[in-house]
Sequence to fold (344 residues):
Amino acid sequence: MNEKECNRNESNKVNPNVLHDDSTRLAFMSMKMIIPTKVPFRHGLVLSLLCTGFATIVAITTYYLNGIANIPIHFGTILQDFKTNPVHVSVNTLLQGSGALNMTTTLKPSLKDVYAQQCDFNDAACAAGYAIVSTHAWYFVGKAFALISDLNKPDFQDANNPMQFNYISNLNGENTPIAQFYIPGHSIAITCMIRRASFYLTQQAASTAMTDSLAFCSPRTYDPNWVCENDVVADTKTYVVQMNKGIPSFVGLAKHDQFYLNAGYVAELSGGLAGSVFIQSVPVIDEYQSGVVQASAPWDILAVANCANFNRLTGTGWLLQMQGVETMTWKCDSLMLTNSIVLW
Fold:
């Protein structure tokens, strides 16, 4: 071999210290790479760690959710006033009527019959059938005025005076029956609103309380254009009447501000035929999401109504103003604490 060929062979040898191009560099690295026989972290271990992390997050979340489930959360006092947030009575079947106390009757209705009356949507025939019951029920309320010794309106207790009344009810949805009693030619009338309340004698235990539909009646200036209004000043005496099966009874009286804008308050009635009485509103429970979330509130015993813009054709414009102390509760029967422990 001559010197020229030897030089050519020497030039073809790979110098490990000098890598001339990428392909040569990769080939050299592959020869030098040491592949371990065991990989310390495989996919199974990584997935296990991820699952443990997610399970821990879910378990902690479930633990804290268990802490708020079935526990009432107080939202405080809510005022639904005429200007910003009134209660709209959705009138789908309207009942309006009138009567006089010189009528005769053989019916023996109760106030709960008037309060609980319900008809189908825009069912005029059903409303006409209930008109007889409503008229006679309000007739007995007017008769109860004679039982109130502190009424200070003797004209309304005189059977010889031709006392008359108008009334209004909503027979499809929320019902708040109201009536105005008046004597033609007199400037003073008496308006009554039927509301459900719980009451018991002051000398007895609260466990003896009964719930019934009662008429809350207050003297008010006669309104010839009356539709549903019953607003009076705060210190006006309000008389509470109970009537079952045609037998009226005077429960007692208190000032109007004991019943209105005083949510959750237990008022005391005096002057009743059976003695002093404690009275309070019946809490209302609204359910959402099929009962999962419940909103409960003791609203005012008595609301104030306004029908200045009431439209008989559309059934809109009957407004209520009242106050309530609302509480929200998330109802859950699942064993969340146990499930969180098992899950983790």
Observations:
- The first strand starts at residue 73 and ends at 80.
